[in-house]
Design brief:
152 residues; mainly alpha; two-stranded antiparallel sheet
């Protein structure tokens, strides 16, 4: 059973990653779904790109959901308009989970799950650090009076 996500309008979309889907995404977008974290630079990995580039995520999803969109008379532009906020997070999770499940070798699936878990921890830690820094700066500005001062 494929992973799914709901768009902003509440429509549920199945995300299916199979050989045809991998081939279509390669051909149409030049993106290889099977290279989750290849290469030396984790920052340029497919996982990070999918999580950091919502346009890329939506483009990949539309290729994967194209038949369902066409059946519902939803264009790629309309599909994009339905995507934003929390549904992007759910869609990324569905896509990444489908990619992991696609790997035919159990060891490859386990390795991909570990990569996803590691990247998730790294991103969560980065978010926590950013939140702490913003909270500290906000407190400093509020106590020094510069938060409300014009021109600063």
């Amino acid at each position: 059973m494929p992973h799914t996500f709901k768009d902003k309008d509440g429509k549920e979309w199945p995300v299916v990653v199979d050989v045809t889907a991998v081939r279509d995404v390669r051909k149409i977008l030049g993106v290889d779904l099977l290279t989750l974290a290849d290469g030396e630079d984790v920052a340029d990995s497919l996982i990070i790109r999918v999580l950091a580039e919502p346009v890329l995520l939506v483009d990949i999803l539309f290729v994967l959901c194209r038949e369902a969109a066409e059946a519902a008379d939803i264009s790629d532009r309309d599909f994009g308009r339905r995507m934003g906020g929390d549904c992007l997070d759910q869609a990324a999770d569905a896509l990444l989970a489908e990619i992991v499940d696609f790997f035919p070798n159990a060891r490859d699936r386990q390795r991909a799950k570990k990569v996803l878990a590691t990247v998730s921890k790294i991103l969560e830690n980065a978010q926590d650090q950013l939140d702490a820094k913003l909270d500290d700066e906000a407190i400093q500005k509020a106590t020094s009076g510069t938060l409300l001062s014009p021109g600063k």
